[in-house]
Amino acid sequence: MQAKEQIQITEITPLLNEKGMIQTPGYAKKMVYLYNKDHIQAHHLRIKEWDFYQLNLGDYILKMTIGNIAYVGEFSAELFNVVTKEIHTFSRMKLFPMNRIQLPLSPEEPSVTTVSGKDFEMAFEVTEEGRHLFLKAKDPSIGNVSIDVWLNDLKQDEKMVIATPFHKDKCFYLNCKAHYFGGHGHIHFGERHLEVDHQTTGVLDWGRGVWPFSQEWFWGNGAGYVNGHHFGFNIGWGFGNLENADENMIFWDGKAIKLSSIHAQVNLNDYMSPWSFSDENDQFVMEMTPVYDKVADTHIGPIQMYCHQLFGYYNGYIRLDDGEKIEIHNFLAFCEHAKNRW
């Protein structure tokens, strides 16, 4: 069910009450929710936490994840080209990491998260100066992997923050999506070498929660430059109880503009056909022409993570709160359809 009335939270608010339920469901433009893990009432094996970064470097996409779902930890980096379909994947898992992986309680406060194994070291660091993504590894199929990237982090830029309840007791989801523009550093996957520069853009997907075992959702996101301005968007539906708020926003020069419900036309029998999106207030009207379907299908016993992540070119327009209409042409971004049992 899509949101009818969007409830914005502007003051510091504890996320959970003593029953492990979201105290005040809604959305915010910065992290005002206090993630109080001691109030989680569900079994500790059901807690899901991750930091996920995705960088756009022309036709190349870099994805990096440090995730902990209590019974499985995932540490991965993937580089691929949406035009040539070149792909390089480094991934390691750890069974039952439990509390040995300490992910930060906030996406905005300074923090360091490090993980390692016999053939790799990986770290995400948040400082006052920016965000540091690091990986040093050896892989038998790739060779040496080296990622050392700093992303610019304008602290005043607004974000998409949402606290989503579920109809099932003791379940909740706290999510932050943030965009970054420019940075520096290098990316090496064997012989493939890329440099991060002022044109590089990125998104952070920061998630903490307890979910029902089976979930399905759609999520679209993009960040880039339009007429010299910083532009980004985030859309999503199908996940949790959205009666109080949804995650639909556009971003223009660091300011978040809340959108109404998104209506999408998607052919699930042909993911590569055009996708169309429009919101109720005529502020986000787009058509995406897919060029690459990045399919993931991971099975571990009863656990399955299945996703079609469609990268394509968005064409259409956005409309700012003051009514200004801005045309969007051939803007590379994605929208995904996921069905998970985890």
Would you write up a description of this structure?
The protein is mainly beta and 342 residues long. It is 0% helix and 61% strand. It is built from no helices and 25 strands.
Residue runs with pLDDT of under 50 for 5 or more positions: none
Write the element-wise H/E pattern from the N-terminal end onward.
EEEEEEEEEEEEEEEEEEEEEEEEE
Please estimate the helix content: under 10%
Shape: globular
Main sheet summary: 9 strands, antiparallel
* Backbone structural class: mainly beta
The Rg value, from CA coordinates, equals 19 Å
**Could you give the distance between the termini?**
22 Å
Strand content: over 45%
Q: Whole-number average pLDDT?
A: 95
How many separate helices? 0
Number of strands: 25
Question: Strand arrangement, largest sheet?
Answer: 20-19-18-17-25-24-23-22-21
Give me some keywords for this one.
342 residues, mainly beta, 25 strands, 61% strand
Walk me through the topology.
Blueprint: E1 13-14, E2 26-28, E3 33-34, E4 47-57, E5 60-68, E6 72-81, E7 87-95, E8 111-117, E9 120-126, E10 130-139, E11 143-152, E12 160-165, E13 172-181, E14 183-189, E15 192-196, E16 201-210, E17 214-226, E18 229-237, E19 249-252, E20 255-258, E21 262-265, E22 275-279, E23 284-300, E24 303-319, E25 325-341
Parallel strand pairs: 1-3
Antiparallel strand pairs: 2-12, 4-5, 4-16, 5-6, 6-7, 8-9, 9-10, 10-11, 11-14, 12-13, 13-16, 14-15, 17-18, 17-25, 18-19, 19-20, 21-22, 22-23, 23-24, 24-25
Summarize the structure.
This protein has 342 residues and is an all-beta fold. It is built from no helices and 25 strands.
